[in-house]
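Example A, followed by Example B.
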Amino acid sequence: MKNLVTRLAALTAGALVATGVGIGVPADAATQHDRAGTKSLAKVLAADGTKLDRNWEDFDILEQAVLAVLAAKPTSPVALLTDGSVRLTAFLPTDQAFRDLVGDLTGKRPGTEKKVVNKLLKLADVNTIEAVLLYHVVAGKTLTSPKVIKAAKKGTKLTTAQGGTVKVKDRKGNITLVDKDPDFANAVVILNGIDINRGNKQVGHAIDRVLLPIDL
């Protein structure tokens, strides 16, 4: 697991330097005539509070991860999620997705969200968590569900804020995200969790697994 942390941390540092994530958005996006709202995804996700609970289908653990990164690194590009003036699309792992990740890594799924968070913080340092979070964000683009479906039909590779790519595929009607780890199950977009914050520059889609930027 120490090797995982080291590899992800190194990957993150290189990607952020290479891509300049957080400095700006693509010129074409910036120059578009834009009437979209500026409510941030972070604000929407926090509307029901950030307290850990027994609902595995919301995003409390994701919020805790974002808060942990920003507390340690206030200038992290993860802060893009709090700036509604910046266009982005985020694929949002549910609490259950994080629970399944811990299970995949340790062989045991914790019984509470708090235990999942504690285990994640033991398994990974802040740089590792930052890398994983940024791998879920497509900066500069507002990809509502019709656009995601269109991308899936074409097998499009989306470049993430982490610097790596995620391939979007249509598999028997399921929108599947293919990450860099071939061993764990690929994430699938949850149909009752699409287009979160639609009408704004930032939009999110719930997914049932955590995306990984390297082959573990």
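Example B, a separate protein, is given below in the same form.
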Amino acid sequence: MIPLDPPLRELDYVVVDVETTGGSWSRGHRITEVAAVRLDGRGRFLAEYCTLVNPARPIPHYVSALTRITDEMVRDAPRFHEVAVELRRVLCGAVFVAHNAGFDWRFLGAELDRALSWQPAEPVLCTVRLARRVVPEVRSRALGALTDYFGIVNEARHRAYGDARATGALFRRLLERVEEREIRCWSGLEDLLRRRPPRRKRTALPTWMEAV
């Protein structure tokens, strides 16, 4: 468990990314790949875990086109319950961090609950929400746009390990932005995330042009 109002630099963080067969666990979609990269509060890598997962259902063609994960690749991969204990070891005692964290948390939390009757009790931190507060100059909150802005290379986009490593590097830069605001403890970060993000200045262009 996380102690009461700890300094941000004294916490551990585990950056997670999952690839799946589709967008909703409740509709029967399952994880095809999971990566967890654990960092300390200084941004140093402590441990990592990545594996393909056999989802026990076909992967839609459009998903394979995006992730480059095929049915053949996962046919001999472990089922989720076979990797759950190792994932728990990496996750335990660390803040759960992900880009669009609700998606990764719903899938991973549901799978861990089904396999082990266990879910992490630590806080969940979304780098999309954090970027809205501390990188207002970047219009898009997509992982690719933010990593490009900070010069972070991701050689395996839309794969769990590549995206988890890139999100970890992004998270370190976001923490630097947080500290520039003289926020040092968890309660201060929570207060920041509760605030409404800065409003963007509208341009004189028509709405349809702004979305391009």
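On Example B: The first strand starts at residue 12 and ends at 20.
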